[in-house]
UniProtKB/TrEMBL annotation:
The organism's place on the tree of life at top rank: Bacteria
Organism: Streptomyces globosus
Enzyme Commission identifier(s): 2.7.13.3
Matches recorded under Gene3D superfamilies: 1.20.5.1930, Histidine kinase-like ATPase, C-terminal domain (3.30.565.10)
Entry keyword annotation includes Lipid biosynthesis: no
Record keywords, A-Z: ATP-binding, Kinase, Membrane, Nucleotide-binding, Phosphoprotein, Transferase, Transmembrane, Transmembrane helix, Two-component regulatory system
Protein name: histidine kinase
Span list, region Disordered: 374-396
Cellular component terms per the entry's GO annotation: membrane
GO terms for MF: ATP binding; phosphorelay sensor kinase activity; protein dimerization activity
Amino acid sequence: MRAAVWGVRARMRWVHLVLGGALLMPYFLVAQVAVGVAAGGVNTLESVPLTFAAYGLSLPLAAVTGVFGPVRPMSAGAVRMLCGVPGELLAEGPARSWAARGRTAAWWSLHLGAGAAVAGMSLAVPPMAVVLIAVPLVRSLREAPLSLVYFPDDTASWLAPLMGAGMLAGLVAAAAAAGALLARAAPVLLGPTAADRLAAAEERAADLAVRNRLARELHDAVGHALSAVTLQAAAARRVLGRDPEFVREALAAIEDTARRTVGELDGVLGLLRDGDPAGRTAAAPAPTLASDLDGLLARTRAAGVAVTVRQEPGPAGDWSQLSPIASREAYRIVQEGLGNALRHGAGPVELRIAVRKGPDGGPGTTAHRELEITMTNPPGAPAGPSPRTTGGRGLHGAAERARLLGGSVEAGRHDGLWRLRAVLPLGGGCR
């Protein structure tokens, strides 16, 4: 109980209230002039009713300024520091809606109004209490015109110290109660609204999407490259001294793979450089199906895996004329499938890429086109007691890439082979 009334937290809340009283002064002075003019040019400080009228008028004036942007973050920071309210209960940043602005205005007028009352009591009560406590000791304080309370005799004057102590105790209790009231009201009036929570959720979702994108890019670029380089180095080591030409080709493939991967890694890291647009512009462009499929196949074959490709443009369009985003995502999906074949496969890979007509949307509609990627290879020996039936992070990333374009990815055993099948909608046609 003592800490709640006179502890460190209670004293900090008292300071918060006094600051509110100081902030009300400009509004009070304006209201004082307005009330004085309305009352016929009188001095409102000479009239208690007019003083209270000016005080009452100053609160709506304060509420009007409470709708402006800086008020809420400033108030939330003061409440967090001086009132001990946890930061997670308070909103961050300016109010985004009129409902939030209205709550901020209500808080601003409550803080300044209660602060002015407590600040006024803090200025007036201590001197009065000191006088009352000194009444029994100073006879002149009991005589008019200095006497605050009439005491009929010296015996009754000894009640004055009790009255002074009671006034001080009342001031402390009032300040503690007002501070507790503001601390309880702060989460209600300064807490996040539904719009604030929605904006925060959207910001977190956007940040998570960026993180997932970077994770996919790093996995696809670096993971595939490391798998290819590992297999190429192992193959070169096995024939070292017997087939110099093969070793030379393997080392050249390792050099080319490493160089390309460094460029792609620099592009991904460029996304992390805030305020460095030049770094992002200078980064190597992301590979696409149209620009680097032949190179990807060559690097995979150099690692010792035979790849057969069936490219079927067909009447629905030419897959080499895909839009940049579709071509990029398709390239990453093919790269993931070839990487899985390198790591887990046990035989040649058959890759089929075709643009075909999608499901008919009904009479009067244009048939959509789809890019279909199908990759099959014999599965390798299981690494554990049960055969591998699902993919890892790479296949999940490939599925996410397909979903971004409205497509899908399927991976698993099919007719005794491991099959990866991706379908990417292309809309009305290729570009």
